[in-house]
Amino acid sequence: MPYQFAAPTDTALPLHVIETEALDSWLAAQAPEVSSWVRLNGFAARIGQALLVPGPGGLALMALAGYGSEEDRARGHFALAAAAQKLPEGTYALASGLDGAERETECLGWLLCDYAFDRYRSRKARAVNLVAPDGIDAKRIEAIAAAETLVRDLVNTPTSDMGPDKLEEAAAALAKAHGAAVSTITGDDLLAQNFPMIHAVGRASATAPRLIEFRWGDTGPKLTLVGKGVCFDTGGLDLKPAANMKLMKKDMGGAANVLGLASMIMALKLPVQLRVLIPAVENSVAGNAFRPGDILTSRKGLTVEINNTDAEGRLVLADALALAAEEAPDLMISMATLTGAARVAVGPDIAPFYTDDDAAAAALAQAAKAVDDPVWRMPFHAPYEKRIEPGIADLDNAPEGGFAGSITAALFLRRFAGAGRYMHFDIYAWQPGSEPAQPKGGVGQGIRALFQALPGLASK
């Protein structure tokens, strides 16, 4: 099955993963005919090189995968997947190489190396299977691969099939698969139950705005995940240029990543009391759209001046964060494709995050390095607080000047997150070009690092 390890079998082909600097010593230990074949075929153990070595009768004796140098591997991700994509169909079993801490990450890359979004175009999946090597937690890696696949599929699906109602269905399907309790507040009921900013942002769409919630687990620390579910963002009345709308199906990438993280937590039964909140809206244009200059009153009671209707993600998150804070969880995490400023700062690969907890930031950075899921801490810079205070209202949703856009957005959200422990991720959720195990399209960001760190983070 896709994204799962193969069962052990005697017919699995031995796979040797070889670093460039180790090739000569490896060849010296082989039979002369093997060494000659490898050299004649130009195998230099570079990343992305793969080679079958024939044995007696012409049948394959073994397979080789280039692993490059440490410097080469530092310039990319999932080096083994680069070779796996070039191997012929079959089942492989690791015979040598990958002895370090990178083994689990590289095995994850193998499981994901054949991912393709095929909802609208059929394809024949390649059966390049790997037997789970000794010393890894195969169930954990499979659960992470399934979660990453969920994130990618959700983000890649266009809004015609992933509007607020369909995002609700996806969240409910995941929750119910793990026995979680699901509830949704929809349309004008958002006003009746005091979620005015979620309602204001989504009311112009043909599909009603909603707040999706599910809970799982009844022991352990209280962990609340909040994901931005803007299923499409026209920019509202401050309409985006056409070129800037092309990727706006991914503006629910925060919600997708939160669901991916929740999937890992539930599948592997992490001992937490999990609560997931997703404000799901489409920021559209109609006669009842919220306007520049409007002042909205949030669930928390803070008033917000709307200086740009394209800064809507922080508005829907604010109401959800205020609800989450009322329960005082041990840890609250928000994820959102929130600002272009974050992309200017760190590019598409790195997930910037904000927290006031130095120990949590250090633990997350260590976890990110261990699982090759890069993150970078950004500052809640207090002197910028005045930039989000317009004077006419308590808060400004889009400060003038354009400086420090990711920081001011994070400071805005912190006003609603309460006094508890809070982490905010300003992610991109999109792979702009194809890389091994990461084809162009939707992608998980920061969730593997978070999952690695959560046992320590949630309990503090």
Automatic annotation (TrEMBL):
InterPro entries: Leucine_aapep/pepB, Macro_dom-like, Peptidase_M17_C, Peptidase_M17_N_1. GO terms for molecular function: aminopeptidase activity. SUPFAM superfamilies: Zn-dependent exopeptidases. Pfam families: Peptidase_M17, Peptidase_M17_N_1. Keywords: Aminopeptidase, Hydrolase, Manganese, Protease. Gene3D superfamilies: Leucine Aminopeptidase, subunit E, domain 1, Zn peptidases. Residues 308-315 form the Cytosol aminopeptidase domain. PANTHER family: LEUCINE AMINOPEPTIDASE-RELATED, PEPTIDASE B. Belongs to the peptidase M17 family. This is Leucyl aminopeptidase family protein.
